[in-house]
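User: Second chain of the day. Same drill as before.
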Amino acid sequence: MRVPKSVKKNRERLLSDMRDLAKELKEGAGYGTLRGAIPETTCATCRSELLKRARQLDFDVWPGVRSKRIKDPLEWGGPAFAELLNATATAVGSAMEDVLGPSPWLTSFHALALYPEPDRTDAEVRKLRMTGLHSDFPYGEFKEKMDRAILTKEETGVEGRPMGHGDRGWQFPPGFRPGEPGGPHTVQTIWILDKFTPERGATALLPGSCRWKRVPNCGPGPDWDRFEKEAVPQRGRCGDILFYVGATWHTIGVNRGSSPRVAILGQWSPHFMCPLEAHVWTTPSRTRRRLSSRARALMGFPGSVQGYGETSRPPHRDGAPRFLRDSARFALDHPVLRSRRLLLLFVILSLFAVSPSLPSTATLALFLVGGSVGYVLGTHATLTRMCV
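Assistant: Same format as last time:
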């Protein structure tokens, strides 16, 4: 099939822009936006599906804004999300390898809907932004739990967040901290699905902060003072992709517009880092068939990544067989012996045994054996898929 000249020209433009952006990630401000990378129709469909899903979810407890985090869109969202990843893989090309090394992959892929709060005062917005100051390196908000364990109990915090970032409370030894040469890096990605402006809660990034070898202290203090003075709110339109180094200082925004601001969030990691989300396990085959070979590789699917053969990225069993008896042992241990379900099952069976109106013992035994076999086989199939 012949590719139209306009499409070919746009691909060449995107690849050229992405190469320049990769250089900016490594040597410049630490962030940049790839303009017009995703078709607007694809973005509109993804946005619609995400808002439908969001109606079934509660608002997030943290960080204090009216937001909803929407997980696993590849599992339930339909073909538009596969189209978005295909377009991303085409636009990015091999540029991400210049930043993260060979075979980097997308270890996180979910969405955030930021709902309107037009009545928020300037003082309230400033406080929320101050207490939300953070970086995403190396694994998003999960690092805060470790910080709480590292810091002494006497050190309080701001709005429930640990204060001891900066030079204390960091989990990696010298040489592996954010911004240090040779240390691990990540690249965060925001797929912009509608208007991205300061009024609608656009992310603000502090240029160059990814190389300062520090994690910012949230709350009042010199870190916030510098951020408030120098941070740059990002602007974008439907179809743009914002990239920034994971150690870049940034904070939450408040949507003071009139409609939800919806974006998909992702994290690119080096090939040796484990995933934050289990795409290999949860993505249905119908969605995987829609992904291009390059898109499957960037997600880490089995048989798609150079050097991994038919196995998936870690965690995996590297092709080792899973025996049915091991699955049966797991099926008994996990949901039965570790909970009160065994007692509940005993009570139900006792009711069957003493009640004359219920099925005979033979029927009950057949039901119990058949259900157990089906349960074990289902567990085996699930574990086999998970451990490919």
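Residues 361-386 form the longest helix (26 residues).

User: Great, on to the next one.
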